[in-house]
Each structure stands twice: as C-alpha cells, then as structure tokens.
Amino acid sequence: MRRKPNASESNPKCVHLIILLLGLLSCGAVYMSMSRFNNHGNINVDKIGTLSNLGGENVQENEGRCRGVERLELWGKAVKWGSEFKVNSPQECCKACQDMCNNGPCLCDTWVFCSNRSSCGDRFGECWLKKQDDTMVPERQEAGEVSMWTSGLVVGKGEGIIGLETEYGTLHITLFPTCSPHSFLHILELLRLRHCAGCHIFRAESRGQSWDSQGNHIKDSSYGPPYALIQGTLEVQGLEFQNIPNEFQPSIKRGSVAWVGSGPEFFISLANHDEWKGTYTVFGTVRPEDMAIADRIAELPTKPDVWEGIHVSVLKRPVPLKFHRIN
Ligand SMILES: *[C@@H]1O[C@H](CO)[C@@H](O)[C@H](O)[C@H]1NC(C)=O
C-alpha cells in the first residue's frame, strides 16, 4: 500500500513493538465472528473460523491480544475495586473485564491496571474494573505527569459501532477497542468533534477481474492493479494527528478498515487480501450489507497516477467523510 505522496512523509514512522504476551484472547474471537458474519450465508462453512481462513500461523502470532493504552488512566464508576483485586498483567485485567460481558450488555467496559512497577510500588498489579456512563465517551483522568496506569476498553456484542457517512450512504463500522485501542480512541475523538473537516476518500479501485463479489481471489488472476480498495485520510484540519502504533494485524478481509502505516491514511478493503496478512493495523470492519456503498465508490470516475512505482486510480472528485454515532 502506498501513501499518497506528500502526505505526512516527513514524519518518521514510529514502529512500536508490541510485546507479545498471552495466547489468543478475544480479538481473534471477535474477528472470526465478524468474518463469519461477513460471509453470512454465502460460503463454505467449513473454512470459517479456522486459523487458515484468517491467514495462518503468522496471524495467530499477531492477533488476539487484549491490548491497552499505556500511561492512560480512564475514569468511571468502579464495579470491582483494584485495592482488593490484583492480577499479573494488563491482559489478565482486560480478561477479567471481558468476563463480565457474557452475552448481554457488559457490566464492565473499562479496565485500569497499575502497570509501572516503580511508580505503583505496593499498588502494582491493581486491576480496577469500571463502567462508563457512556462507553463511547470514556472519561479520562488528564495526566499532568506520566501516569502509572494502563487502561483499555471492552464493548459487548452490537456495541462499538459507528457510522461513516458519505454522500452515497452510511457505512456501519464495528470498531475493535480491545485489539486496537489507540485506533478506537482516535475514532472516538473524531466522533466527539462531530465534523471531520478534511476527511475524505481520494483513491478508488475496483475488484477488477481478480476478486469476486464475496471478495474471494479468482484463481490465477493478478493481485492488482486494480487493488480492490478505497483509500482516504482521517486527518482533521487543525488537529495534530498522533501516529497510531501497530495494533491488531490480521489478514485483510472484504470490509476490513485499516490504517496505511501509522495513519492518518486508511483504507477499506473490497476483497480478501490474504497476501497482505500481518501488514496493516485493522481497527474495524464494515457491515456486510453496506459494502455495496464501498463498491459503488470504487466505480466513480478516476484518473491514473503512479505513487512510488505503483499504478493507482485517484478519484477525480474526492468523497468527503463524516462520522456519527449509531449506538
Ligand atoms: C515509570 O515511572 C517512572 C517514574 O516513577 C518513569 O520515570 C518511567 O518512565 C515510567 N515508565 C513507563 C514505562 O511509563
């Protein structure tokens, strides 16, 4: 994936190494159930949910981590007091919060773990489980100094969905707060602003002859161009963009919403790009029935361009974007 030339090329790419800790936790499960949903009714059920369907071992290594944001303290009403509940890792704290979700609404949507051994002292390992008044507007403790806490968010089934509004219709996107928390907080910030001045789609490429309407690659065809994606930016005018570290990087599926590098450019994939597994931070997935809107945008008039040797199709008229809340 190429960035649009001249877009924040001067920012050094900040590649954070995520420390791999526990085995598969919830992201894998969420993503698998999303792929199942994506493919609902159209497919070879045998393959769904298997790791090979998600791209194999590399993906297993890369996904499924319950992640938090370091040096962030989220506020909210405590449902379990950390002074009486200690665990060994942020992942365990996250898991404890998730365990309060079952199938209904989550009784816990926020976990806060005392993670800095030297500043936490005796409190190291405290795991506070909290519930926000509104999960989509989490309260944060403005840390004047460096916070000793690591925090994360958890949403239940049917929650964490936002609307990405275009003139061709609204794409409902399910976000992945547990796997891609920095991305999630960034999108919440855009929601809070209500406008997204400058956010737009500028590149549009169809599935061509290489991928079918379900996003499956057609045997022996090329992997593009066209590359079966729409690409744009979520950089808001007048707001400094904080680079997003590497988060959840599974295989790219039809409907995957992912950053190009550390953002603010992003793309929505129109096809299953297994050839891109482990490359892009995926922060959401488009509701399957809304993918027709993305396909439609991919058919708009374009002009050819070349970015760093890659042939791309740039929209003659960019499509402005805006976010709004769904739930
Ligand atoms: C932990 O806290 C100390 C100060 O007590 C600070 O110097 C250090 O950078 C912190 N570590 C992290 C990873 O935040």
Automatic annotation (TrEMBL):
Keywords: Signal. Residues 163-306 form the PPIase cyclophilin-type domain. GO terms for molecular function: peptidyl-prolyl cis-trans isomerase activity. This is PPIase cyclophilin-type domain-containing protein. Residues 1-29 form the signal peptide. The keyword Ribosomal protein does not apply. Pfam families: Pro_isomerase (PF00160). SUPFAM superfamilies: Cyclophilin-like. It comes from Lithospermum erythrorhizon.
